[in-house]
Design a protein that fits this description.
Elements lengths: L3 H15 L4 E3 L1 H8 L3 H13 L3 E6 L2 E6 L1 H20 L4 E8 L4 H5 L3 H11 L8 E5 L4 H8 L4 E3 L2 E3 L2 E3 L2 E8 L2 E8 L8 E5 L4 H5 L6 E6 L2
Antiparallel strand pairs: 1-3, 2-3, 4-5, 4-12, 5-11, 6-9, 7-8, 9-10, 10-11
Amino acid sequence: MIPAEELQCLKVIALRGGCKGPVFVSTQTIGELLGTSQQTASRRLKGLEAAGFITRAIVAEGQHVNVTARGEEELRTEYQDYCRIFVEHATGYVLNGTVVTGIGEGKYYMSLAPYKQQFLTHLGFEPYPGTLNIRLAPGSMPTRKKVDALSWTRIKGFSTDGRTFGDAKCIPCRIGDIACGIVVPGRTHYPEDIIEVIAPIALRRKLGIEDTDTVSVEVGL
C-alpha cells in the first residue's frame, strides 16, 4: 500500500495534469504545495518513482513528471473509497429506537381532509389515522440531526370552522418494505428524541409491535 504522504504527493502531481502527460515541476514547488521542505518533496518523488507510480525526466530547472497507469489506478482506488464514504453512505440514514405511546393527537390530525390530501400528494399514500411514536436511541441522535438537515416537504396549515391548524413538514421513509413518512408539526410538543411516523396502514398491527419494541426507520434508502 502506498504511504499516505506519497499518496498526497501523487495527488498533487495529478491535479497539475500529470495523468494527461508529463508536467514540469520543481521540488521547491512540490514542497510548497505539500507544506514540506524541498528535501522532503524530493524524497517523496523518488519514492513514487521507485514504486512505479510516476516517471521522471530530470532537467536543469526541475523535472518533467508523469503519472503512470499504476499511479492512476492508485488514485482511482482512493477515489472509490471516498465515493463510498460521501456518496454511498450519504444516500440514506437509519434511525433506531423503541416504540412508545403518544398522547393520542395523531389519530385526530391524520383524519383531517386537508392534511390527508397533502400527504397523499407528497408521500403517495393517505395516512392511517394515527402515528407510530418512536423514541430514538442515543446513538441515533446525531443521525437525527443529519435527517433534519435534509430537504423536507412543507405541509400547509389551514383554517376551518373557526379553528386554525398549523404547518407541518414531512419526509419519506420506510420501515422494512412499508412506505412511511416522518411528520414534524410546526409547533411540536414532543422532545427531540421522539419521531412520529405515518403510514397507509396501522403499523403496530402490521408489524406486531408494542411499546418498548425496537424498530428501525430508513430515510433515503
